[in-house]
């Protein structure tokens, strides 16, 4: 049978984010898959270098629209390590609490999206209705549903009052009950099992070789979780299991996430029980002494990694972000092979991708395909402004005004 | 037990229930007390230290000196990311976060909120101690 190549994307093949897949098909079967990122490079790392550490927290919180707390925690952990700050136990517990609530909201969201990708919209509606419980809790604690802004260098900004604590406990009870029901649905509903099983297979060897992390790796029996293997905050004091699964397919990835939800409820109950008394912050210097640190954090999608280098000023010299999706992307190409074209959306969605978080750098190749060119920040900026000007949009003035404003501080 | 139609029972029992969504804007939900919406500025408390401007991640707040110990704040509602860092850093509690969130405007000019001090300059010795309510000229073009 002859091969045809079809492009999918960059307009959302699964989730509403820009990426492009080139699939080589034989009939309806995907024989080979290639992918291309780079549609939504936001220049955040460079922007961090122009802002103070405090400002960077809020910027980095917006790397991802879902793991916002993951990115800000990962960043402040690195900064605190460089500055030699030891946050108070209460602050560490609150960070864990928000992190785990975020995991619930992320996994419930994924569960709904996955259901939608396979045409089970009933499940999408119910799981998202129940997700509102945790969204409301997060809004009550932090003041916002998504960008919690709970972290600051040296601690957290909002406290957990006893009333809030009671509300969280109530919400968790209700969520646990609902999650048990969804586990029943996932393990008993024949159509769902049949639809997800054997789709997007990734063997343990492949998962290890391609560096799959988070629930994607754990569903291929890779037993790794930063919370247990390299505990940050107070995870070493908390009892929880790392959920793995042997199915190695989309069905396994569903079970892992649902199982993790149950563990998350356990963690939250322990946090609420033990929440130690004490201040929320320790005093942090504005100028961070020269040094570098590398921080790891188990985000809902897998391990998130930040590298920060400081030079003794108020602004970092370098911030490098590796969002979990980047580590899982290599596996997607493998998972797509030998599946039907119709399964592509759910296979892509099954790693719970976040493409915009992943876009970091762009390598330009000249049309002959040989010479690679990389661009410095200023050149890239000028290029961008020129590109838009040729199309009748002039950003130069706005850019200058913003620079002036930022420098005026 | 593996079967088809596991959620059927749930669906049937939902038939008689109210929708889970709210009929906004006809029906309003109360926002949590910590909600971060539009900022409020108390000119009589401000000492013009500009710490808020220094820490704002998006250059959304501007403190202008308009007289002896008199300051006005201009907040670009379109640039503000509602993080409340300025509120945390202000040593005089001159900024406050409110739960006002319906800030959409058809004209971008209206997205500047100007908070001016009361018209009468406070007499010497009383500066910063007046309890005149802040006069808010918002939203107005700046
Ligand atoms: S930080 Fe407070 S006191 Fe200082 S300029 Fe800003 S509003 Fe005024
Ligand atoms: S809330 Fe945040 S973005 Fe808005 S003015 Fe204050 S510091 Fe700036």
Q: Describe it for me?
A:
The complex is a heterodimer of chains A (409) and B (142). In chain A, helix 4 packs antiparallel against helix 11 (250-274) and helix 5 packs antiparallel against helix 6. Chain A is an alpha+beta fold and 409 residues long. Chain A has helices at residues 44-49, 53-61, 68-83, 89-117, 121-142, 162-188, 190-196, 204-210, 214-218, 226-229, 250-274, 324-336, 344-349, 355-358, 377-390, 396-407, and strands at 3-8, 20-26, 29-36, 151-152, 155-156, 291-299, 302-310, 316-322, 364-365, 372-373. In chain A, the strands form four sheets. In chain A, strands 1-2-3 form a three-stranded antiparallel β-sheet. In chain A, strands 6-7-8 form a three-stranded antiparallel β-sheet. Chain A has a two-stranded antiparallel ribbon with strand order 4-5. Chain B has a four-stranded antiparallel β-sheet, with no helix packed on it. A two-stranded antiparallel ribbon of chain B has the order 1-4. In chain B, strand 2 and strand 3 (70-76) form a beta hairpin. Chain B has three helices and six strands, in the order αβαββαβββ. Chain B has 142 residues and is an alpha+beta fold. In chain B, 12% of the residues lie in helices and 20% in strands. The chains are: A alpha+beta (409), B alpha+beta (142). The A-B interface holds A 51-52, 54-59, 62, 122-123, 126, 129, 132, 136, 139-144, 147, 149, 152, 157-158, 181, 184-185, 187-191, 193, 402, 405-406, 408-409 and B 1-7, 10-11, 20, 31-32, 34-36, 53-59, 81-85, 88, 97. The complex binds iron/sulfur cluster (SF4) (2 copies). One iron/sulfur cluster (SF4) is lined by residues 39, 56-58, 60-61, 75, 80-86 of chain B.
Span of the ends, CA to CA of chain A:
65 Å
Oligomer: heterodimer
Compressed to H and E, one letter per element, the order of chain B equals: HEHEEHEEE
Q: How helical, in percent, are the residues of chain B?
A: 10-25%
Please give the order of strands in the largest beta sheet of chain A.
1-2-3
Widest sheet, order of strands of chain B? 2-3-5-6
